[in-house]
Amino acid sequence: MSSEKHIAHFNWGRLKAPIGDPLVAEFVDNAARVNEIAERSDGFIWRDGGEGTSAWQIGWPLFTETPTMIASFSVWESPQQLWQFVHKTVHGQFLRRGADWFHASVSYNYALWWVEPGHQPDIYEARDRVEALRANGPSAEVFTFKEFPPERLSAKA
Question: Model pTM?
Fold first, then answer.
């Protein structure tokens, strides 16, 4: 197995309306298609699929206090491959139209962190990283592409 670390990605957003409302239907109706593209993308390793429910079950206030909060949780071989999926596939088209379906974020709306190959992070790990980012900003333990663009990231162990 490579000595390179993989990158975990957790993102969240507050929909402008509940799932089922026509205002967010285009986004909701395409989520499965975008997830399928992710799963076929170069560098994709794992996707949770139940992150919103898990966040609610552990009592994570970010989710329990906001019923329209949704999330995505995945692991990728490299930040470059994640960046490629996020910005250069159909996902990028939806990302650019995010204001159509989501309230603007007052701070961060995603977190990245290194994981060892073979490690599957859980919702507790995601919560801890997200809350550290929200409380203290980027660090070596949790960061975003804004502070650390993919071309500057090195995952050497």
Answer: 0.90
